[in-house]
Amino acid sequence: MRRPSLTTLRAAGALSATLALALTATACGDGGGGAKSGGELAGTTVTVAGVWTGSEQKNFKKVLDAFSAKTGAKTVFVPSGDNVSTFVGSKIEGGNAPDVVLVPQVGVLAQFAKAGWLKPLSEKAATTAGGNLAPVWKNYGTVGGTFYGLYFKAAHKSTVWYAPDALEQAGVTEPKSWDELLAAGRTLADSGRPAFAVAGEDGWTLTDWFENVYLSQAGPEKYDLLARHELKWTDPSVVTALTTLAEVFEDERLVAGGAAEALRTDFPGSVEKVFGPEPKAGMVYEGDFVGGVAKDEYGKKPGEDAKFFPFPAVGGGKAPVVSGGDAAVVLKDAENAEAGMRFLEFLATPEAAEVWAGAGGFLSPNKDVRPEAYADDTARATAASLVAAGDSVRFDMSDQAPAAFGGTKGAGEWKLLQDFLRDPSDPRRTAAALEAAAAKAYGN
């Protein structure tokens, strides 16, 4: 899902890896400031790695603090960067694996499990999760019949966020279809503010654009087939979706600053362009977490001066509902793997989810989280929609793919869609390139 980012460096051995971890912990702080004196895990440090930066990292540390207060364990958060696979591999190789990793891609979770890196969920964690998560979330965390990954944070990735004053000034209302979306965007541009801030520097945002268009146009059955690479990327349905997406990418009225500027804009920067002190666009497409960034970084109130509408239906299709999520896993060879599993048992409870829910910028797939725990009505309604969708949710397609195709900065789908943003003139050529990269990554 969303993965604001820094480059991941490979550790050069056990000593350098240890030094790097110490430096990171010093720079980022820890979540154990409120550790319970004499708690059952007193004297134990649980190291947790994840992609989160900025406000997301700050709010997750509140969850770490709650665990520390409950158990006495000290907690340290280590940013993994976008390439979680490379990061974890380097830490294992260096003999300094974190205890817990928050994995944002189903394909990477499966890769870790097949490599023998993961510890199965304890009976307590599995039972708790089985009672409060829809089966689809357990399925995404299961590899070869073994339950490894606990989905803690979910995302509703079919939301388009906008500055109400921009739409009001342009005299446009929330669009209900793709054609209305393009028309509204061009009207916005004519009023003085380009339509979309596109975060093209982060390739994962472009995969999300494609997935929403494809799910609506091609339908859920083909979406599932393409996600498993049982349908080739050269299929006409893919070319059609790319052609539709090109309607946005090729129009400088719709992309603030054009492709060149978009390719220099990361996800946090795209939110700033809409909700920051000097707005340069009226809308930003991404998941529900946009609201949290707008609130924490720019003081916007979701539902008031930061609103969203559902990603509209494309052509004759239905409005898409694409989700994503971050699964917590325990590395079995980590120094404190048992304490790490205790942390997952905590994450499986509504208590843990409600800590972040109150801070904002968070959705839980846990049906037992109290609606009143969410920070605002917008988050409350979005969370209810996600939970109500149950097994009909379609998980982010790129997150289901092998990391080499769907989850690596500068490679695979991320890079090829960045190339397509740069030059969207030949959807068939892009589809062929995507198929070649997918065939290599999937091994078929």
From TrEMBL:
Cited InterPro entries: Bact_solute-bd_prot1, SBP
SUPFAM superfamilies hit by this protein: Periplasmic binding protein-like II
Tree of life domain: Bacteria
Signal peptide: 1-27
Keywords annotated in UniProt: Signal, Transport
Family assignment from sequence similarity: Belongs to the bacterial solute-binding protein 1 family.
Protein name per the record: Sugar ABC transporter substrate-binding protein
Species, as recorded: Streptomyces filamentosus
